[in-house]
Design goal:
- The chain folds into two domains: 68 residues; 143 residues, no CATH class.
- It has eight helices and five strands, in the order H-H-H-E-H-E-E-H-E-E-H-H-H.
- A five-stranded mixed sheet has the order 2-1-5-3-4, with helices on both faces.
- Helix 1 runs antiparallel to helix 2 and helix 4 packs across helix 5.
- The longest helix has 27 residues.
- The chain is elongated, with a radius of gyration of 25 Å.
- The chain starts with 13 loop residues before the first helix and ends with a helix.
Length: 260
C-alpha cells in the first residue's frame, strides 16, 4: 500500500500544517502498531507500543480540537488574519485616503541606528478613529489641521458595521514609525472630545503587524487588547503634558514605561 508523502515546500498555511500533523500521525501510528505486532519478547514491549500509540493519537486530536475552536482565527492565511486583527480593533485598516493635504512637519527619515529610529514620511501617516459617539468630530478637527484622518468602522461577524462605545475602547495604537509630533498632536485633539482615552501602545512591540500599521495611528483601541498587553493607564494630565518636540526614541520609551 502506498504511504502518504509530505512535501514541505507545499505547506504554506497553518491549515495545511495541521493536515500534515494527521499525515505524520498516520505514519507514526502505522510504524508503532506494525512493530508491536511483530515483537514477541519481551512480553511487555508490544503492549507498551500500543499504549504509546494511543497516547499520541489522543494528544494530537486534543491539540487539533483546540486549534479549531479557541485558536481558529490564527489558522487563517496572512491577509485574512490581518483582517481579523483589524476587526478586533487591534489594527486599523490599510487603505490610505487620497486627495488629502499633507500635514506640515519636518522629520528625519534616516534608518541609520546612529541617527535614531526610522520615521515615517508625514504624508504617509494615516489616523483612524473608531466609529463611536464623537468620532466624526475628532476626524473633522484632525482634517482641519491637515491630518490624513478618517472613521474606522468595526464589523461584527455578519459583516455589518457597529457603533462602539469609547468606554470599552480607550486605547491608542501608534505605529512604530509615526513621528511623535503627529501622534501627540492627534492624541491631544482626541482628548478634547474623548477624555476617557487612557492607554498607549506602540504597534509591533508585542507582535509583528502588517508593515502599513507602522505608519498609522488608531484612536479607540479595544480594552480587551489593553488587558492582553498589560498596559497601565495614563492620566489625562500626563497625556496633555506630552512634548511634541521629543524624539521618536524618547516617545517610545515613555510609552513603554507604562507596560507591565
Amino acid at each position: 500500500m502506498a504511504q502518504p508523502k509530505l512535501d514541505a515546500e507545499k505547506i504554506t498555511s497553518p491549515i495545511q500544517l495541521m493536515a500534515a500533523w494527521f499525515v505524520m500521525l498516520i505514519l507514526l501510528s502505522g510504524v508503532l502498531l506494525t512493530a508491536a505486532s511483530q515483537i514477541e519478547k519481551p512480553d511487555w514491549a508490544a503492549g507498551y507500543l500500543v499504549i504509546f500509540c494511543s497516547i499520541i493519537v489522543i494528544a494530537v486530536i486534543a491539540c487539533v480540537t483546540l486549534m479549531l475552536t479557541k485558536f481558529r482565527p490564527h489558522l487563517q492565511d496572512g491577509k485574512e488574519y490581518a483582517e481579523w486583527l483589524k476587526d478586533q480593533n487591534t489594527y486599523s485598516e490599510g487603505i490610505r485616503l487620497e486627495n488629502t493635504s499633507p500635514i506640515k512637519a519636518v522629520v528625519k527619515t534616516s534608518s541609520d541606528p546612529e541617527e535614531g529610529p526610522e520615521v515615517s514620511n508625514p504624508n504617509e501617516v494615516r489616523i483612524s478613529v473608531l466609529d463611536a459617539v464623537g468620532g466624526i468630530d475628532i476626524v473633522e478637527k484632525l482634517k482641519n489641521l491637515d491630518f490624513n484622518a478618517d472613521i474606522y468602522k468595526s464589523k461584527n461577524p455578519s459583516g455589518q458595521s457597529t457603533l462602539d462605545s469609547i468606554i470599552k475602547n480607550q486605547g491608542i495604537w501608534i505605529g512604530h514609525r509615526v513621528p511623535p509630533e503627529i501622534a501627540i498632536r492627534a492624541i491631544k485633539e482626541a482628548l478634547r472630545i474623548w477624555p476617557d482615552l487612557q492607554y498607549i501602545h506602540i504597534s509591533g512591540d508585542r507582535n509583528e503587524p502588517p508593515d502599513y500599521v507602522n505608519d498609522q495611528v488608531f484612536i479607540g483601541g479595544a480594552n480587551s487588547a489593553v488587558d492582553r498587553y498589560k498596559i497601565r493607564k495614563w492620566s489625562t494630565s500626563e497625556l496633555e503634558a506630552l512634548n511634541e518636540n521629543i524624539s521618536l526614541g524618547e516617545f517610545h520609551a515613555l510609552a513603554r514605561a507604562k507596560y507591565s
